[in-house]
Design a protein that fits this description.
Family (chains A, B): Belongs to the gamma-glutamyl phosphate reductase family.
CATH architecture of the largest domain in chain A: 3-Layer(aba) Sandwich
Organism (chains A, B): Roseateles albus
Helix content of chain A: 40-55%
Structural class of chain A: alpha/beta
Number of helices of chain A: 14
Strand order of the largest sheet of chain A: 10-9-11-8-7-12-13
Distance between the termini of chain A: 49 Å
InterPro entries (chains A, B): Ald_DH/histidinol_DH, Ald_DH_C, Ald_DH_N, Aldehyde_DH_dom, G-glutamylP_reductase_CS, Glu-5-SA_DH, GPR_dom
GO molecular function (chains A, B): glutamate-5-semialdehyde dehydrogenase activity
Oligomer: homodimer
Main location (chains A, B): cytoplasm
Chain lengths: ~425, ~425
Amino acid sequence: MDGVGSAARSAAALMAAAPTAAKNQALLSLARRLRASGPALKAANAKDLAAAKAAGLKGPLLDRLKLTPAAIATVAEGCEQIAAMPDPVGEISGLKRRPSGISVGQMRVPLGVFGMIYESRPNVTIEAASLAIKSGNACILRGGSEALHSNLALAELVAAALKEAGLPPTGVQLINTTDRAAVGMLITAPQHVDVIIPRGGKSLIERISAEAKVPVIKHLDGNCHTYVDAEVDFGLALTVVINAKTQKYSPCNATESLLVHAESAPDFLPHIGAVLAEKGVELRGCARTLALLGPLPGAKVTAATEADWSEEYLAPIISIKVVDSLNEAIAHINHYGSHHTDAILTTNHAHAMRFLREVDSASVMVNTSTRFADGFEYGLGAEIGISTDKLHARGPVGLEGLTSLKWVVLGQGEVRA
Amino acid sequence: MDGVGSAARSAAALMAAAPTAAKNQALLSLARRLRASGPALKAANAKDLAAAKAAGLKGPLLDRLKLTPAAIATVAEGCEQIAAMPDPVGEISGLKRRPSGISVGQMRVPLGVFGMIYESRPNVTIEAASLAIKSGNACILRGGSEALHSNLALAELVAAALKEAGLPPTGVQLINTTDRAAVGMLITAPQHVDVIIPRGGKSLIERISAEAKVPVIKHLDGNCHTYVDAEVDFGLALTVVINAKTQKYSPCNATESLLVHAESAPDFLPHIGAVLAEKGVELRGCARTLALLGPLPGAKVTAATEADWSEEYLAPIISIKVVDSLNEAIAHINHYGSHHTDAILTTNHAHAMRFLREVDSASVMVNTSTRFADGFEYGLGAEIGISTDKLHARGPVGLEGLTSLKWVVLGQGEVRA
């Protein structure tokens, strides 16, 4: 691990200084190699799949492990998209002349080395590698042990692409062991690693945050809210809430909790309740919600407990609460939410502006679906993760989140008086 | 402490939503109150000074504790300057329409609650309070125990100013105890505190970083370098190096290490050596430096040890090394430096640009003195500290460093396909 770490640190200097053309060449070469390596990747992936099936892995976990031709085409296309994006590194902004004569501005630079710890999803190997290359960082990847053969085959392609472009093959390193101690070393080596990005379940991220001696860009849970205001277009609200809750149940940006203003509740709740129930969504309501929902034959409707307000279901379940004011809605979200993504549906401009300003979440939305909280949808090209931290990067983290700003001072011999 | 923490969290919501006019009113009221409270502040400060003298405190430590009329005038003026600056909170940048129809941008918002831990310098109480007010944050201040009476008197003025402006007096709280356990509680309470900013010696900051469960904006040491290139204006280099090293010895942005290209060394070293020696600066040189310095009667000239290259002297001592190339200079700085502030003196544009890009420090400078690394000199109005971290804020941290960006999404009923 120490060898991997110091190799990453050395590579980082070369990655940071790499010309844009070389980084793009590496990304395009990687896309080509991915498309040309179908059989080899399939063979490596088959080993992982066989072992996983033998170990009893099933359902979505097994699906995520699969490196299908479609998945390979998607990550290859992702590399090309990132190659087409502007290079964030070296941009100087805000250069201003000061009374002393010096000019002061900020230059965007790579963070250095990031460590990525993720589950058994081989596509993340390519996503992380391609973002590292374009952002001028070196990275150390630690994927789930079930995907090791697939990841090794992919990492080989990355190294070859880097080499072809004249960049250090150690710019992207995959930890070639399933030993858990390697994670412990990675997260406690500030001399080698500048930031750790964990992607996985809440327990993994909490454990890493607790033990890390290196800064962590965390994504904890996504308990997202949609608030239906007193002044609202009911048609819009129905469409948006249905999308936010039911378009997909497993993503972190799906709405888990619906807040409805008391003035809208008598009309809105029976309608939304009926549509959600028809889609098989379980409704967990406050007492006023239950009274207003009306009869929903065959639907699962229960009383929400205190724990429901904090829950990230990632499932066809929604909690519903009637609130008496915008103030109450904002206070509820700031108290029970996870500071991920929250939306207001309203026709009132002042309410929209207050919600945007006062809800303390990484993404705040007006009149649209929380499902839009995503690096691609935001125009970042790709995302390395979604941060629920307040410092550095909030929400979807793309190329910019993997950089920081240093101060640049240009003088002509000025001295401090 | 739990009461202080939850009061800060409640106040933070009000501070974040506060109108710019109210925040400015509080700052101007604070300036007025500071100017009108000379006798009361003097009396409180006298208690601290008497106790400190009785405890044997001397020299600079005692000087820093003094709340002189001049010091009061300076912090009052600082409040007025911060009132005159633009409000960073609420600014929306980069709002762009996406193919889906939504508009996506970023809004600048306060971090929430910051905890400030500092030594016995009462002026820091007002600097931190004024930056908190303008940036819309609540803060919890823990000053050095020797300054407790002075700090309590100052905190009373801050609370009155907040109240006068219709803001929560608990927006700025001073911990009214010298119990060290309070620090431990402050740095391990993520439910109450979003970020800790320690200001003090390296050992204090290392201890806080090691024990904190809350993110820390750290300022470790300032081992700053000035590199004199092969192509350089000797007159400019002499002026700048003398200023960078000798204008003041104690600040973190003073140059501690001088690197000289082998082509410049034979001419430059005897000159700079003579001037530094005349000013009483001890010279610790590499073997080539010692050979080139020539006779310096009465000067203290010694061989630099490996430890010298990493040392932050904060004293009239400088380490000097001859390097054979720009590459060697950059590698030396990135290896031994503290990523604080480093400067190149050169007439060569390509060398200047490579230095700016490749030296991994919070501030990188061309042809000027490292002593300029300062919030006021950079135009930030004030600084809460200087960060040597890579994430979030690097270098001088002003109002912007106390904020973060959240994503703002504006729709008209768009849903995710």
